[in-house]
């Protein structure tokens, strides 16, 4: 090793010429993974360190449909200072304009932690004091702009008027809340008296935030609450995980982005391998000389392994510096876009993970050409020394490469936290890699075959001959560009299909409005008035309660189905006597009309199959603090994609009829009359809340747009790496093109013909890479859309054509970038130098 190191060190004194592609690919891949990990770590640290601020207290107990009973409130107050907040949807009204808002009604202790950000800056007491005899509110600036309001104007919530005292920029506990369809409004709880918004049965959530003394055992406090409130349908959260939904989302999104980063490393690996191969080809004379002096193949391997190892360490170090520094530099911009506090700092774990991935990727893509270099013999001094490294490495290096690949995939599966997703993604990347390699070989064979049979198209024949001839240009271009375009194509197909599922199909069949909080005595006059309008084609209504599934077959529901959305929170529950029109029973029987026996449940068939429910199973549903245990007697089809009324849980009428509740309705109307319908309803029934379906779709689309942007940026980083490989490949082939151009000119070819030859071969390789990428991207998009998103899949033609055009344009521009020197060189100079 000392001899190998001495030789390697002396060769490295010659500089890094030929290794800039190697360094750039490795640096970018490691930097992308390090940056993603650093941002994820900053968010997780912010959630952990600011857990109490995000939650609104050291602990929070949420009750649905009800306030805490006196003895429950006393229990909370025995643990510390308690602040009560009520959360619900309503309509903010000004004149003839109205918009959906998420109202947060708080007491005078709010917030226990953190500060409410207002514009102009003022105390909450001053906001709630109001002016001119009106109580005050703070309203989100987006909502004010939508309604054409400003600070000082008057608005209505329910039957009461309020003065807008400030713009609500941020509430400290807003990140810990649920997804909201409307911008927030902050109001004092006592100011809602007489508004009619919180009548019996109205849908609201009461939160009790508790500020506890230091050193309190949170697990013991949780156990006390669970014992005292058992069976009351409460939800407990504490500062240890103040925003579980955001934590889960960040974990999954960052894991997916790490996979995109690993794809970038795979693309860069092609460049790394090509750079090592080109470097060794240039060192053929040196290696042959060493062999003639008695050096063994093992010594040659160690010499260049040490050189590559030093350069790989340099590339990884540069990637770690870049990936660790970028989040710190752009931290303020990132923080401004996030709804949670973040703590940007240099963290060792994401950097160590990125270094591990970089080292394994560098080893995977360099061991093969290094193993081939062992076969260079002393006789190469008397042959073409530029022929490069060829053949297969020894079996031991093939086995080592397989082990390194397994280590890379296994590390990603273990560290990402989503093992199955990682394994499937790794399988997809490897399948795409193999397909692209085979496609490159097929293109060379096809190009040679076509070149022999074309007589009249000289430029095309020469281009095809160059593609099918010796050299690795076709393989490097097709594989590197194809992998990058495959990721981008998959993201484009997934994004397009997800947007179509949300905003493409629904407007044709979905209702205009969802109406909630309809009091029982309001249902008949409201539906009568709506159906009397010519613009209303259909109206559906159903009783509506909220319930939490606490047990499945007497076992805790979260233990039986821990990851299923149906048991993670409260769900809409309805009841019916006769079988509702249009309902399809898939298994079992509906209870008969007038049934008044033991509680029975009809459950959504698809969700039941996912959880593993069967006829005869029992569910315990907590409604308004009361446990109702019922038997599943039927399964039915529930199609949520229509946008109409759909309940996972439906019970017999006698089981729920006596509970305080409201009704929900859907209105199908002509779009031109929607605004008038909303105005008339709000004037006649100020307590009801109307959710416009198109606005809800737009809100969800905004969230998806942010997710799609993050994934697209990751895919673009992969594509940039592919571009670097393209440039490196073109640069490495420039010497060969100079000679080729000289020969063509000597044979009478014009400069235009030579340029056309170079451009045509580049465009053909780009077309191949784009076409293969399109196939793999569509396959990946189909798999994710159908099996993960569970949506229909159609090929996005616009995105598909853009991918193919992008492949052609990228290779064409890169090829032309390195075509000017071959065109400008005089043939005599080149041919004499060759001689």
From TrEMBL:
Entry GO CC: plasma membrane
InterPro entries reported in the protein's UniProt record: ABC3_permease_C, Membrane_comp_ABC_pdt
Its membrane topology: Multi-pass membrane protein
Keyword field: Cell membrane, Membrane, Transmembrane, Transmembrane helix
Segments passing through the bilayer: 256-280, 301-334, 354-371, 392-415, 421-447, 764-789, 795-820
Organism: Litoreibacter arenae DSM 19593
Coiled coil: none
Domain of life: Bacteria
Subcellular location field: Cell membrane
Keyword Membrane annotated: yes
Domain ABC3 transporter permease C-terminal: 260-370, 716-823
Pfam families: FtsX
UniProt protein name: ABC transporter, permease protein, putative
